[in-house]
Amino acid sequence: MRRRNASAGGCRVRVRNLFLIVVGFGTLFAFGVAAQDAETEKAIERYRQMLKEDPWSNPGLLDSDRGEALWKTPRGPKNVSLEQCDLGKGPGKVEGAFAELPRYFKDADRVMDAETRILWCMEQLQGFNTADLVKRPHPGGGQPVKELGAIATYVANQSSGEKFAAKLDLPQEREVVALGEDLFNRRSGPMDFSCATCHAAEGLRIRLQGLPYLSEPKEARKVVGEWPAYRVSTTHVMTLQHRMYDCYWQMRMPQLQLGSDASIALIAYLVKTAQGGEIAAPGLKR
Q1: 58-285 classified as CATH 1.10.390.10
Q2: pLDDT of amino acid 53
Q3: Which of 85, 195, 198, 247 is catalytic?
Q4: Where is the Cytochrome c domain (predicted)?
């Protein structure tokens, strides 16, 4: 009887020791992964800093130049340029306009972000069909940003160095911001995700990519002003409308159409949260 008890006790000791060993290895592995992640993040940040120190290494500037040419070139069924497009500071005035968007436009009776306003001008001034432009508005991997995205990159670049200063205080604007906040935090879709699932806590990451805490103004001010951005992984510029579309796709949500009320609302909420942050577009992303 004693031998059986001693055997059982020895078994318990061995199991306990094995458990402690496994926990110990698990803890060491976790620390190792955390240290490796920290080193990887530092290396990625050094890479980004090197690119920022040499602005001409940013391929997104080529699309900004292309966008400027598209802005000034007569095109479309009406064969006119966009130089009479009013982005909020008067017809044809581009410098500083992006910093004050989104905003309510009386002529369209709608709150618009930069891309939606440019799209509206392309239809009204140049005669393009909006339905055609929003069918496939975003580039695939390795393809250059579409013309609308290039123009938006140019417009954003003309506000680089300025602070986000969209007032968003009119009743129509406040309503859109409130809708954007609701959409940002609402869990839905087959995965029961929301924007907040990835972007409403500090220190989250997906694979090697740190996830910005976008509902926190301090963090949002660092990040939102870098869009449009050149993405090294896809070798093209991605606009903020494209970023919203891509996030919805990753959440397995219904396709988010460029210029839709939902897309504008999300952008308005992010810009409101990032108010006072510096614009550095086009930015550089992984």
Answers
A1: no
A2: 72
A3: 247
A4: 175-274
